Amino acid sequence: MNSNTNASSKMVLIDETASIDLAKRLLQQKQINLGDVVGAQVIDVNSSPTVIVYSYPLVKYRRTATSTELGHCNSSDDAKKLCQAVKSVAGIPLKRRNMIVIINPKSGKGLAQQVWQQNCIEMLSKHANINFKNENVILTTRANEATELAEHWDLSDIDGILAVGGDGTMYEIIQGLMKRKDLSEIRKIPLALISGGSGNAWSCSILYLSGMEKGLDSLQTTSTNMAFLVARGKFKALDLSIAENNTQGKMYSFLSLNWGFAAAVDIESEVCRCCGGLRFTCYAIKLIWCSCATYNATLHYLPLSRDDNNVMSKDIENGSSKNNDDGTNINIDVLLENDLLPSLNTPIEGKGWKTIDLHQNQFFMASQMPTLGGDMIINPNSKLDDGIINVQILDRANACAFTKLLLDVETGEHLNGSAVRVIDCVALRLEPKDGLVVVDGELVEREPVQMQIHKGFLNAFCT
I need a surface site. Which of 24, 28, 226, 383 has the fewest CB within 10 A? Predict the structure, then answer.
């Protein structure tokens, strides 16, 4: 940690009304950017209470720890007032927060636990004063364990839920949370994914939207920067889709529905897991130039209308209520249903629905976030809570053109030409005739699958 301790030894007298002004003046004198501050602490230096400010300015794309001594105070009470004033001025939480962290040691290259210990613990626990009780720091040992845990956690005093791993770890947590009966309260708790997997779309997307779009291919950079957002304590609404098929039933999706080529790259590249995120690029090139496979399906979709972008799905804002026979009130928790879609066994028909036959398709992806990882800017205009499923389709491109398109995905330039067909919708049904189908990185049965987006249903740590 860099340290700035060139503070005046003059005693500082603080009263209630002057503490905010004093904090502003001292932070300005020390040239501390308010948006970089994650915490403040009172320490005893030579029997004199002193306030230390912890900040994390960007240094070559990554947040780097700096501690600065503001000055000595006349009393512990004065120091505590100044400490609280610093937090207030910097716009960070005043109270000590309690959080749960789920670490998946098998994600990606197996670095999740190391990432947590080296890049996150000191910032979050010591500098941001976040409380992680021993029972709330959990290492998973098997698949779906995070789902089972999330379904039964006592979350009555929890201020955040963190996953350390890949998108699959967060996917498991959300499946468990969405099974709970107290969704109206649970959905208010912000979530964060600390990068520790191969595909870290959640964290890369949020950092991209938070102005920290550089260095997204580095676990050290993305994990540190995501921890910084958690420390700062700000969060925003996050869209959630319900995907469903007859075999798996309901699946709660924050990321994407992939089919054909994109699904094959996601699933079949598991043999190259030791390569980290590079596995996706290598396997994609292999498929393009060696297999030349194309895929066939029918897509039904409901285009985005003018009103869809401002309205949440019914019944999810505050829940609803009804009365018992004796007149007493019963609280009904949040209801989240695909009200725009018919049942899976019912044909898609009705006003507004459109149908496309996908013949010799080479690329299909229905995504909700701007990135799919550090080097895949799939939809640079996507927002966390825009209520849009962005569908991208490519048919009948030769190998050279397809390779160029995938290279252009690294910067989002693939959308500037006419090769990719782009559709913004709020609901869809895909009826695949061949190829793999994947929801948020999880392989599902090759059968009709449909999904509807629900605007801003969850919360995610963000700027």
Answer: 28
Q: Which tokens is 363 given?
A: 């690329």
Name residue, tokens 């636990």.
113
Which of 164-178, 308-322, 405-419, 447-461 shows the lowest per-residue confidence on average (mean pLDDT)? 308-322
In order of 184, 201, 259, the CA distances from 379 in angstroms are 30, 12, 17
- The pLDDT confidence band at residue 314, using thresholds 50, 70 and 90, is very low
Task: Give pLDDT tens digits for 116-150.
Answer: 999 999 999 999 999 999 999 999 999 999 999 99
* List of residues 6+ apart from 221 with CB closer than 8 A: 61, 62, 214, 215
The span from the CA of 89 to the CA of 318, in Å, is 31
CA distance linking residue 304 with residue 307, whole number of Å: 8
What the chain holds in terms of domains, given with CATH numbers, is 2-90 (no CATH), 99-233 (3.40.50.10330), 249-452 (2.60.200.40)
Percent of the chain with pLDDT over 70: 88
Confidence class of residue 326 from pLDDT cuts 50, 70 and 90?
very low
Work out the angle between the directed axes of helices 76-90 and 19-29 (0-180°, nearest 10).
70
Please give the Cα distance from 367 to 40 (Å, whole number). Answer: 39
CA distances from 186 to 241, 263, 293, 321, 386 (A): 17, 31, 43, 18, 21
Which three-class secondary structure string do you get for 59-100?
ECCEECCEEEEEEEECCHHHHHHHHHHHHHHHCCCCCCCEEE
Return the pLDDT at 47.
77
Give the three-state DSSP class for 161. Answer: strand
Contact yes or no for 192/460 (Cβ under 8 A):
yes
Q: Which residues contact 148 (CB under 8 A, 6 or more apart)?
A: 176
CA angle, corner 229, sides to 381 and 182, nearest 5?
A: 90
| Stated pTM of the model | 0.90
> Which whole number is the average pLDDT over 81-108?
96
Six-digit token pair at 186? 């649970």
Which of these, 352, 362, 364, 356, lies nearest to 427 by C-alpha position?
Answer: 352
